[in-house]
Amino acid sequence: MFERPRGTNDWGPEDMAKRRFVERAFVQLAESFGFREVSTPMFESLELFEAKSGPAIVNELYAFQDRGGRKIALRPEFTASILRFYVSDLRSLPKPIKVYSTGPAFRYEEPQRGRYREFYQLNAEIIGGSTLASDAEAIALAIGTMRAIGLKQVQARIGHIGMLRAFLPFAPADQAIVLHALDKKNLEMLDAELARLGRSDLAAPLKQLIGLSGDASILKEAAAILGGAGEGAFDYLHRLSEQLYHYGIPTSDYAFDMGVVRGLDYYTGMVFEIDSPNLGAEKQVGGGGAYTLAEIFGGEPTPQTGFALGLDRLVMAAEAERVLPPFVPLDAYVIPIGDSMRAEAIEVLSSLRAAGLRADADLIGRSPTKNLDYANAIRARYAVLVGEKEAKGGSVAVRDMTSGVQREVSLETLVAFLRAS
Ligand code: HAM
Q1: Is 70 helix (H, G, I), strand (E, B) or coil?
Q2: How far is residue 163's CA from residue 271's CA, in Å, rounded to a whole number?
Q3: Which residue's CA is the closest to the ligand 1 atom numbered 10?
Q4: pLDDT in tens, 258-289
Q5: Could you report the per-residue pLDDT of 117-136, keeping only the tens digit for each?
Q6: DSSP per residue, 89-127
Q7: CA 392 to ligand 1 centroid distance, Å
Q8: Does any ligand 1 atom lie closer than 6 A to the CB of residue 123?
Q9: 134 vs 247: CA distance, rounded Å
Q10: Beta carbon of 107 within 6 Å of any ligand 1 atom
Q11: Cα 49 vs. chain centroid, distance in angstroms?
Q12: 265 lines ligand 1 (CB under 6 A)
């Protein structure tokens, strides 16, 4: 017996049906918003992530040397790869470029419920749109996806890291350390770092600031704490809120929260996170914001904004709220009555499959009684019994597996009968 690597999962058929349902909700909505799918490698050169993803991610990378001695990392997220792709190949596409991707990402984390080493993200990026419009569009797609899944409990928190950065008069590396302490709400680390940088005076206003969360009125309070820093950010968030209203996103779906700092280093403007309150410790189902990676990778400055939702957590939220669609059973299980009817049974089976019905038949050579037991066990809607006498008359016996009622149905009307009932 081999064990799965720590922090990974196997997903059975029932799980996969749920996962695909959630993924489809995102893909369909993203397509309806005009996003198009792109795909990038599951591993990249280590440098790509070291360039700007920040300590939180870099310490969690699955990194190794390949046989050619190259330093490689499994992707911990999609954004860096997509912006690398944008700078090298996609720049000539008409702007804005709106792309989405789905797939696994890898982080060497301490596994627990909802936190895995291999997990699945639903990711969207907008490159080259105006900042405000793109930020609103990204939040609308993220919250819209949760609504499309059927989730009722959506708690987004919207902040502005540009404003915090403007308040921290430090070199980028030091700023990143302070922001990391704020992200982790590690106040001891915050005090120590500010002392090291000779700016302990910033500790009190920063602590006050990251505690601010609520409706638009907190933006005024934040402005009072910050003075001139990040001017315009508050007005910006007001206007964002107005845009969200026109998208049909009520203010009850989100709060402004000056404590949203994000664990990745590349954010420069609006940042947001979305929680599903039912999930306990790992309740954050998504996050994103405005950032500047293209510039770091050698491209021209252009607005970039995006987000990723954690598929594993969305499924858990959908399970908790009981909004997942019921099991979809097989339409028909085709049973030959006797070995001599096997060829006819395969033909009936093929005609049902060709018509787009979900149909299956015995692969073991069971008796009709055992086959009926099996059809029952797999919860098939109907058993289609192919007997010699009926087949000669161009018909089959169809048994409703729920009621047990059996009737003769002609082969010409079989598809219509199974579809209608
Ligand atoms: P992130 O907040 O690091 O952002 O991840 C987004 C979501 O992925 C999280 O909210 C969570 O639901 C899920 N997730 C992260 N780590 C794990 C894990 N170990 N196990 C299960 N789920 C996890 C990003 O990755 C950014 N790239 C988002 C973005 C796109 N920003 C701009 N564009």
Answers
A1: coil
A2: 11
A3: 286
A4: 999 987 889 999 999 999 998 988 999 999 99
A5: 999 999 999 999 999 999 99
A6: TGGGSPSSEEEEEEEEEE-----BTTB-SEEEEEEEEEE
A7: 61
A8: yes
A9: 12
A10: yes
A11: 20
A12: no
Distance CA 132, CA 62 (A): 35
Q: Per residue in 192-250, pLDDT tens?
A: 999 999 999 999 999 998 899 999 888 888 888 888 766 688 889 999 999 999 999 99
For 23-49, how does the pLDDT look when each residue is reduced to its tens digit (9 = 90+)?
999 999 999 999 999 999 999 999 999
Q: How far is the CA of 176 from the centre of ligand 1 (A)?
A: 19
Whether residue 119 has its Cβ less than 6 Å from ligand 1: yes
- Reduced to 3 states (helix: H, G, I; strand: E, B; else coil), residue 52 is helix
Cβ(145) – ligand 1 distance below 6 Å: no
**Residue 376 pLDDT more than 80?**
yes
CA angle 168, 174, 175 (to 5 degrees): 35
pTM assigned to the model: 0.94
Kindly report the length of the chain: 421
Helix (H) or strand (E) holding 82: helix 79-88
| Mutation probe of ligand 1 site: the residue of 86, 149, 161, 313 with most atoms within 8 A of C-beta | 313
Q: Which two tokens stand for residue 206?
A: 């920063």
Rounded CA-CA distance 270/21 in Å is 30
For residue 163 and ligand 1, the question of a CB distance below 6 A is answered with: no
For the chain, helix (H) and strand (E) counts, in that order, are 16, 17
Residue 273 identity: E
**Residue 55: pLDDT over 90:** no
Structure tokens belonging to residue 116: 């895995």
Q: Are strands 155-160 and 254-257 parallel, antiparallel or unpaired?
A: parallel
